[in-house]
């Protein structure tokens, strides 16, 4: 089996996921994992699909039928690197919204060799102060050669500097 990663972007409308799922199923593919969202009227998603190697080109061609509805990019997933498995850390961030929070956090993680597996963020009105709050959940993969506690210490230092609260996940 070959693992493909599909990225999907287009104007949101009913039935987009069903159309992609039908094409994958019609080519004997298996929908493994996905992250799908609607933001400001735009549908975006990342889908991991496994399909028999001899059907990859056929599946790619079939997905082109949706070109007017969705921009779809198909990537072949790289094989997992040998060696010790990386560890993951989960961080929850909450603070007054201001420009640069995501840039600072992602740069600090990159400097430690960590890779962001998932980042969800939002802003909302602060109940008492009348300002805006920024909140995010980040799941980061720490390479086996790096101590997760060192990464956490750096993020804790940064959180104090940029004045956000940091909570470590389970």
Automatic annotation (TrEMBL):
Protein's UniProt name: Glycine cleavage system regulatory protein
Domain ACT, chain residue ranges per copy: 5-79, 90-170
PANTHER family from the UniProt entry: UPF0237 PROTEIN MJ1558
Tree of life domain: Bacteria
Native species: Microbacterium aoyamense
Pfam families linked: ACT_6
PROSITE patterns: ACT
């Amino acid at each position: 089996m070959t693992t493909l990663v599909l990225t999907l972007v287009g104007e949101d409308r009913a039935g987009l996921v069903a159309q992609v799922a039908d094409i994958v199923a019609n080519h004997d593919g298996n929908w493994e994992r996905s992250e799908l969202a609607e933001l400001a009227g735009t549908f975006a998603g990342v889908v991991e699909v496994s399909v028999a190697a001899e059907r990859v080109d056929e599946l790619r061609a079939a997905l082109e039928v949706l070109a007017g509805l969705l921009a779809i990019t198909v990537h072949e997933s790289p094989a997992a690197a040998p060696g010790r498995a990386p560890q993951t850390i989960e961080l929850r961030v909450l603070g007054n919204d201001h420009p640069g929070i995501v840039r600072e956090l992602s740069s600090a993680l990159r400097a430690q060799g960590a890779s962001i597996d998932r980042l969800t963020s939002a802003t909302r009105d602060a109940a008492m102060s009348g300002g805006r709050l920024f909140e995010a959940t980040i799941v980061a993969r720490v390479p086996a050669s790096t101590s997760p506690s060192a990464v956490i210490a750096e993020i804790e230092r940064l959180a104090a500097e940029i004045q956000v609260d940091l909570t470590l996940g389970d």
